[in-house]
Design brief:
Residues 279-362 form the TGS domain. ATPase that binds to both the 70S ribosome and the 50S ribosomal subunit in a nucleotide-independent manner. This protein is α/β, with parallel strands linked by helices. It folds into two domains: 2-277, P-loop containing nucleotide triphosphate hydrolases (Rossmann fold), CATH 3.40.50; 299-362, Beta-grasp domain (Ubiquitin-like (UB roll), Roll). 43% of the residues lie in helices and 19% in strands. The chain is built from 14 helices and twelve strands. The protein has helices at residues 13-23, 48-56, 85-93, 119-151, 156-170, 182-191, 218-230, 239-246, 250-259, 266-277, 302-309, 311-315, 325-331, 334-339, and strands at residues 2-6, 39-43, 60-62, 65-70, 97-103, 199-204, 233-237, 280-286, 290-297, 317-324, 344-346, 356-362. The chain has a six-stranded mixed beta sheet with strand order 2-4-1-5-6-7, sandwiched between helices. A hairpin with a 3-residue loop joins strand 8 and strand 9. The longest helix has 33 residues, at 119-151. The two termini are 28 Å apart. The mean pLDDT is 90. The structure holds guanosine-5'-diphosphate.
Length: 364
């Protein structure tokens, strides 16, 4: 999973991104992740892993990871090529979801590009750039489809849908706010529009606003109201505090969070929101060597899950031995879980659940 961080200059993006890379997962463990200074890889926190590793006596624990991509430089006029804008916009096309950092903290020492705090205006400024970029892309697509539709009448529906999206964008609406049938949604997803990507608004607040989750901050309230209309998520963070948390060891971190009256860090909240927004779940594998979590899309079947580990596992999939994490944990061992009849043998059509502990049988 790759999330792109966007927002106006001076809202706290780099501070948050630096916290992410500080907290960063050991990149050697994640060879699939791109080595790029603008990409930070973080582990997805999962308390189940330590329990499983205990049961199996695993040598190491490998949490699943997500990537955050710092997309700085998105400013007013970006879609018109200002400030290398188009280059940044193309980076956003590569991410699965967007984290849009919005400044909700007052601080006379930190200049605001527009001279004052105004989360809704800021959101609109960035969203307009995304809209302009999509309109430009759609125009080219519509021209092509119009030509092709002259000899191929079956393209009329496609053309009508493209024009519907174009009209919505011209009304300053995000493509994701459109109501679409399943087929339409699939088609639109393939267009890779920036304004169709799921968004988490990260409301960057002052430390004092953290404990009550921004409940008394009117800027946060405005962001929440806007997000609700758009069908987007809001996570309240304090980038500066995140930067401090990222430097702490796990135990210190827990104590520090408790002092602040928090149960988890902003980064962990962002990761959870991203999982929820993208409909992701984790399944687990365990053995004496390692205990590991893997990310899949909710609704994936057993062979697809096996394919996350290795493509050969998907091709040669025969069956999977599955036990729910809770069942295994309360039984204390795989043998005990088997005795109680809690371990199932599942085939190709099995839909994997979050927290399934799986062992695959496959042909090579
Ligand atoms: P970017 O341009 O969006 O990447 O913003 P930066 O992360 O560079 O932050 C701009 C300035 O705001 C820096 O001086 C940060 O120290 C400051 N800043 C970032 N987050 C916070 C915050 O949560 N509270 C306060 N008071 N200042 C912050």
């Amino acid at each position: 999973m790759k999330l792109g961080i966007v927002g106006l200059p001076n809202v706290g993006k780099s501070t948050l991104f630096n916290a992410i890379t500080q907290a960063g997962a050991e990149s050697a463990n994640y060879p699939f992740c791109t080595i790029d200074p603008n990409i930070g890889v973080v582990s997805v926190p999962d308390k189940r892993l330590a329990v499983l590793a205990g049961i199996y006596g695993s040598e190491r624990i490998l949490p699943t990871a997500i990537e955050f991509c710092d997309i700085a430089g998105l400013v007013k006029g970006a879609s018109k090529g200002e400030g290398l804008g188009n280059k940044f916009l193309s980076h956003i096309r590569e991410v699965e979801a967007i984290v849009h950092v919005v400044r909700c903290f007052e601080d006379p020492n930190v200049v605001h590009v527009e001279g004052s705090i105004g989360p809704l205006r800021d959101i609109e400024t960035i969203n307009l750039e995304l809209i302009f970029s999509d309109i430009e892309m759609l125009e080219r697509r519509i021209q092509k489809t119009q030509k092709a539709a002259k000899s191929d009448k079956s393209l009329q529906n496609e053309l009508a849908l493209l024009e519907r999206i174009q009209n919505a964008l011209e009304d300053n609406k995000m493509a994701r706010s459109l109501e679409l049938t399943d087929d339409e949604a699939e088609f639109v997803k393939d267009l890779n529009l920036l304004t169709y990507k799921p968004v988490i608004y990260a409301a960057n607040v002052a430390e004092d606003d953290l404990a009550n989750d921004g409940a008394t901050n009117e800027n946060v309230a405005a962001v929440r109201e806007h997000a609700a209309q758009e069908g987007a998520e809001v996570v309240v963070v304090c980038a500066q505090i995140e930067a401090e948390i990222a430097e702490l060891e796990d135990e210190e971190k827990a104590a520090f969070l408790e002092d602040l009256g928090l149960s988890e860090s902003g980064l962990d909240k962002l990761i959870r929101a991203g999982y929820k927004l993208l409909g992701l779940i984790s399944f687990l594998t365990a053995g004496p060597k390692e205990t590991r979590a893997w990310t899949i899309v909710n609704g994936s079947k057993a062979p697809q899950a096996a394919g996350r580990i290795h493509t050969d596992f998907e091709k040669g999939f025969i069956r999977a031995e599955v036990v729910a994490f809770e069942d295994l944990a309360t039984s204390g061992s795989m043998a005990a879980a088997k005795e109680k009849g809690l371990v199932r043998v599942e085939g190709k059509e099995y839909v994997v659940h979050d927290g399934d502990v799986m062992l695959f049988r496959f042909n090579v």
